[in-house]
Structures are given as structure tokens and as C-alpha cells.
Design brief:
Elements: H1 10-28, H2 34-49, E1 52-55, E2 60-65, E3 68-73, E4 76-79, E5 86-91, E6 97-101, E7 104-107, E8 113-115, H3 120-123, E9 124-126, E10 132-143, H4 146-151, H5 156-173, H6 177-183, H7 185-203, E11 207-218, H8 224-293, H9 295-310, E12 318-319, E13 328-329, E14 336-337, E15 340-341
Antiparallel strand pairs: 1-4, 2-3, 2-5, 6-10, 7-8, 9-10, 10-11, 12-13, 14-15
Helix pairs in contact: 1-2, 5-7, 8-9
């Protein structure tokens, strides 16, 4: 690779011209040497003009010497051997190039305008369930090897376009129209990008695929309204299913918790009742044992204990004597009224 420092300077060219001029004057004389001098100067100017070239920041220069690859030229000003000995091809390796399918960008800016007229052959694609979809997509790529990109194949852009169309039609042809229009667009784009890169690597044209992206996937215009209605119905269906699942996830755990709580309460109540029944049974058996030992005493004790429980609950107490004619009043000396004892 050559650079600016390897070329002849202006002073060297001027000295060479003066030297040739003096030699011609000595051999041919002043008048006869004028025409060859003009031709020589013109020849040197053309040679000097064609000896320098500039490579932009987003480009790489491919230098050929006698038609054979010599080197790559980085951005900057460079010197080359003129008269067709060295040729330089500038390749935009620093830019991401884009190819559009199914539409063309007419004017880009704040309000970008597009054109789809006459591009139906690119965009109309048959799906796996024999439906037709209108597909618009882009392919972005970078030139990884500028020499291969220029010389490995005659028309690399056409090759990329034809291969991309083949990959898209194959991927969409293996899917049904619902997947293409709704859920499977991202996965299909990833599959197309992978297959496209693999095929171009096989061709060895020095290209790296950056992305494959669907811009718009719609049904054809004659059936677009029907497809939109179906799509809306599918979205409503998915929304209702989501709401039902949300309510299910909210209500079922609550019901399970309530059922578990009821079971635990029932189990606790059963344990309580069993323990209480066992206690009463043991108490009854103990009383029965004591009763068998002394029936009269035990009967009297049970009667008194029962009265101790019942009598405090009564408002008024009347004691009747068999020998008395009337009732004997009992003063409620222990009855609490108004916060004190009467």
C-alpha cells in the first residue's frame, strides 16, 4: 500500500522538467525543443494528476496492480502508479446498505413517502395454508470483504436480492397466514436472516447480513377488510382468555384458602368436642364410682352443687314449707343493685 510520502514531490518534478528542457536545447536548439517540451509537460501533468486518489472515511480502496490484487487502501490521500498500471476501486465498507422489497422509498425525511405501484410480484407471497399475504421487508447488510464483494460475483446486489426473496418465500410458505400476520413475524425474520447469511457465506461474496425486518405484512387489498375482522376477533378472543385466566388465578386460590380454613376449623371443633365429651365421660364415671360407694351422700352433693349453679341466675327465690300455709319470702341480701350490696 502506498501513501502520500512515497510519491514524487513538486520540486522533483520541476527539476526533472528543467533538466529535460536543457538537454533538448543542447541537442535540438531552442525552437525545435519547444514542442516536445510542451508534450512532455502535458504528459507529466496528466501523470501527476492520475497518480493520487482519496479514500473517504466510510470507504476502503481495493488496489489492483496489473489486474492482480495488491493491497487495501485505508481512508486518506494515497499515491498510485498511473497509466493503468494500478487501479483503485472504492467500496463503502463503513456504511450499512439497505435493500427494500415490496416498496421503494421515494423521499426520506420528516414525512417519508413510499411507492408500492408495480411491485406486487415482490410483495405477494403464498402461505402454507394457500392464502396470499402482502409482505414488505428490508435487508440491511455490510461489506465485510471488499475484494470478494467486487470480484467474486458479477452483481452482488442482485444476488442478495434474489436470495432474500427465495428465503422469504420459503419461510412464509412453511407457515400459515395467521402466524405470518400476527405472532410469528419476529421468529420468521430471524429464520430468514440465518438462512440468508448461510447461503451468502456459501457463495463467498464477503457480505455480512445485519438484519432482516418485516416492515408491513397485510392481506391483499380485496380481502383486507375480512382479514381485519378476523384479526379483531382473534384479539378479542385472546383478551377474553386472558381475563378468564386472571379471574381464575384470583378466585381459585381464594376458594382453596377458604376451604382449607373451613377444614381446619372443623378439625379443631371436632377435637374440641371429642375432648369435652371425654372429659364429661370421665367426670360421669368418677361420679358413678363415688355414687356406688355412698349413694345418699353423693346424691346430696350433686344436688347442692347443681343448686350453686342455678340459684345465682334466678331473680326471685321462693321457699315452700310443707307445714306452712303461705310462702316464705327470702330477702336478696347478696343481690348487687346499683353498684352496692343491699
Amino acid at each position: 500500500m502506498h501513501d502520500w510520502g512515497n510519491g514524487p514531490s513538486a520540486d522533483d518534478l520541476e527539476k526533472k522538467v528543467i533538466e529535460i528542457k536543457d538537454q533538448l536545447k543542447k541537442k535540438l536548439g531552442p525552437q525545435k525543443a519547444f514542442l516536445p517540451l510542451v508534450i512532455l509537460v502535458f504528459f507529466l501533468v496528466i501523470a501527476g494528476y492520475n497518480s493520487f486518489y482519496e479514500v473517504d472515511t466510510e470507504e476502503t480502496g481495493v488496489v489492483l496492480r496489473f489486474g492482480k490484487f495488491a493491497s487495501f487502501a485505508e481512508p486518506g490521500l494515497h499515491f498510485k502508479i498511473p497509466f493503468g498500471i494500478e487501479k483503485v476501486y472504492l467500496v463503502p465498507t463503513g456504511r450499512v446498505l439497505k435493500e427494500e422489497f415490496g416498496y421503494r422509498t421515494i423521499k426520506s425525511g420528516i414525512r417519508t413517502t413510499y411507492n408500492k405501484r408495480g411491485l406486487e410480484e415482490e410483495s405477494l407471497t403464498l402461505t402454507g395454508d394457500l392464502n396470499v399475504s402482502d409482505v414488505e421487508w428490508i435487508v440491511q447488510f455490510q461489506i465485510a470483504d471488499p475484494f470478494k464483494y467486487i470480484f467474486k460475483i458479477k452483481d452482488p446486489v442482485s444476488t442478495i436480492r434474489d436470495t432474500s426473496e427465495a428465503m422469504v418465500r420459503r419461510a412464509i410458505g412453511n407457515a400459515d397466514v395467521t402466524q405470518v400476520l400476527t405472532t410469528a413475524r419476529a421468529s420468521l425474520a430471524g429464520e430468514i436472516q440465518q438462512n440468508l447469511q448461510s447461503t451468502l457465506n456459501h457463495y463467498d461474496i464477503g457480505v455480512r447480513i445485519v438484519t432482516v425486518k418485516f416492515q408491513d405484512v397485510t392481506p391483499p387489498d380485496p380481502v383486507k377488510d375480512a382479514f381485519n375482522e378476523v384479526n379483531e376477533a382473534e384479539q378479542q378472543k385472546e383478551s377474553l382468555i386472558f381475563q378468564a385466566r386472571e379471574q381464575f388465578n384470583r378466585e381459585v386460590p381464594r376458594a382453596r384458602g377458604q376451604a382449607k380454613q373451613a377444614l381446619q376449623e372443623a378439625e379443631g371443633y371436632a377435637v374440641e368436642r371429642i375432648n369435652k365429651a371425654r372429659g364429661e365421660t370421665n367426670r360421669f364415671l368418677a361420679l358413678l364410682t363415688e355414687y356406688k360407694k355412698a349413694p345418699k351422700v353423693t346424691r346430696r352433693r350433686i344436688y347442692l352443687e347443681t343448686m350453686e349453679v342455678i340459684l345465682p341466675r334466678l331473680e326471685e327465690i321462693y321457699i315452700l314449707d310443707e307445714k306452712s300455709v303461705g310462702a316464705l319470702p327470702l330477702l336478696p341480701l347478696r343481690k348487687v343493685s346499683g353498684g352496692g350490696v343491699k
